[in-house]
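Ops channel
N.P.: pipeline sanity check, posting one input/output pair.
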């Protein structure tokens, strides 16, 4: 098999996600992958690419990781799947116990779904239903932050605020209340990230003060708005938000689907704000990039609001066919084992520092408006004008030039608009990081040319 054979066949039958398929007939060819190993992806002709975006932020410990492969093989020999209503199994019990152990204190119950958007949908329904069971059916609105992203099923899409994904479907979506994001990109010159986050929090506080009677929950992506362009903010925002949610009787839903499992430098981003949300949604890194699985962790208080005699009809009657799939759970357990046994959070610190140092020279570049980082996520934002941070018009699609250049230099960099970022698997080496930085620098140089 040659690359071209698979591409030609694939374009006749596969409709790819998040893609204008016409692009693939022109300048942006589809890339066929035959195999993966560690940070490397390899095509049918032996070309290799460092997976700098962890295959859409899911891969943690490399492709074809022997320890995870072994966990799958072991589980398949015992039980591939069983209905989770009325039945239970060892991987799901073990995983629930382990997740309760490693997440912030007070999250004591684990509900299962099979992708990030579905976890968000479940958390929204649970929050609304909690208030209904408590005799407060008037609480039916949700608050989000500007530039947020929570997935693409209708409820999750309604909750997001990235117009590229949302505007087309607006007539189908529920209304939400939007508070301004603490995104430090927008701070005034000389203002600290912390001061800006506190200033932006005032609008959230005001919104909650005025409308808490109708609000079920505030939903946030702690520390990094990933799909919103890897925009970052100071953890103080969520410390304040937790206090306010308690004060006004509103739930806090932490969407850690992308940032969980070490991406921000701590196992969970909420740790940096010292808070426990009422709901925490996890997916992506939960299975280290292997299988679709997601969870909603919540508190005893939430769980108890649903716990009663059947006839009260207070139960949470929500399900997905593959809820708590045993193979997915076994992979998640192997993932947690690797975090523990290899002291991953500790050893990532050196890699984070290396990422920062390797792009430091770009700070002075006339078309780099911002370099930002939380732990293992680093972003470089290209701008047309540095002083005013004026963006390049989106129609120019300059990010794609970086992507195309990177493919010629053994790297998979897939910018979000004008934002070039690294969110690599944790098995990357310092030498590979320096190579990515070199490729990104070349790519940016090419992309900003007229
Ligand atoms: C990816 C993502 C989702 C949606 O997860 P899917 O598995 O793609 O449905 C939700 N929230 C955030 C923050 C994400 O990055």
């Amino acid at each position: 098999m040659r690359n071209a054979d698979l591409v030609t066949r694939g374009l006749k039958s596969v409709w790819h996600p998040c893609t204008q398929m016409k692009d693939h007939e022109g300048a942006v060819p589809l890339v066929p992958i035959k195999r993966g190993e560690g940070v490397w992806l390899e095509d049918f002709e032996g070309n290799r690419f460092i997976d700098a975006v962890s295959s859409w932020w899911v891969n943690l410990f490399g492709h074809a990781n022997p320890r995870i492969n072994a966990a799958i093989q072991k589980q398949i020999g015992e039980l591939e799947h069983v209905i989770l209503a009325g039945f239970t199994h060892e991987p799901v019990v073990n995983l629930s116990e382990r997740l309760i152990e490693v997440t912030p204190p007070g999250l004591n119950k684990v509900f299962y779904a099979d992708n990030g958007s579905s976890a968000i949908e479940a958390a929204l329904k649970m929050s609304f239903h909690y208030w209904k069971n408590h005799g407060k059916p008037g609480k039916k609105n949700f608050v989000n932050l500007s530039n947020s992203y929570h997935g693409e099923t209708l409820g999750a899409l309604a909750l997001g605020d990235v117009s590229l994904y949302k505007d087309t479907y607006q007539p189908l979506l529920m209304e939400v209340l939007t508070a301004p994001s603490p995104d430090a990109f927008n701070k005034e010159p000389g203002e600290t990230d912390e001061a800006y986050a506190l200033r932006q929090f005032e609008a959230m506080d005001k919104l909650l003060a005025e409308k808490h009677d109708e609000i079920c929950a505030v939903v946030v992506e702690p520390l990094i708005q990933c799909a919103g362009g890897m925009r970052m903010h100071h953890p103080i925002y969520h410390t304040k938000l937790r206090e306010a949610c308690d004060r006004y009787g509103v739930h806090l839903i932490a969407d850690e689907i992308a940032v969980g499992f070490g991406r921000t430098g701590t196992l969970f981003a909420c740790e940096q704000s010292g808070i426990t949300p009422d709901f925490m949604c996890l997916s992506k890194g939960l299975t280290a990039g292997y299988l679709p699985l997601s969870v909603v962790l919540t508190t005893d208080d939430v769980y108890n609001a649903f716990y009663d005699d059947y006839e009260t009809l207070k139960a949470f009657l929500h399900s997905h066919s593959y809820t708590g799939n045993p193979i997915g759970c076994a992979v998640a357990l192997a993932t947690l084992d690797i975090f523990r046994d290899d002291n991953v959070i500790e050893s990532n610190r050196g890699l984070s520092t290396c990422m920062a140092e390797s792009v430091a020279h770009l700070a002075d570049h006339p078309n780099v408006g911002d370099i930002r980082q939380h732990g293992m996520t680093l972003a470089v934002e290209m701008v047309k004008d540095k002083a005013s941070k004026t963006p390049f018009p989106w129609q120019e699609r300059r990010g794609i030039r970086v992507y195309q250049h990177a493919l010629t230099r053994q790297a998979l960099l897939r910018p979000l608009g004008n934002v070039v970022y690294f969110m690599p698997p944790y098995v990357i080496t310092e030498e590979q990081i320096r190579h990515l930085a070199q490729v990104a620098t070349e790519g940016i140089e090419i992309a900003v040319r007229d």
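N.P.: looks fine end to end. The chain has two domains: 33-64+343-447, 69-341.
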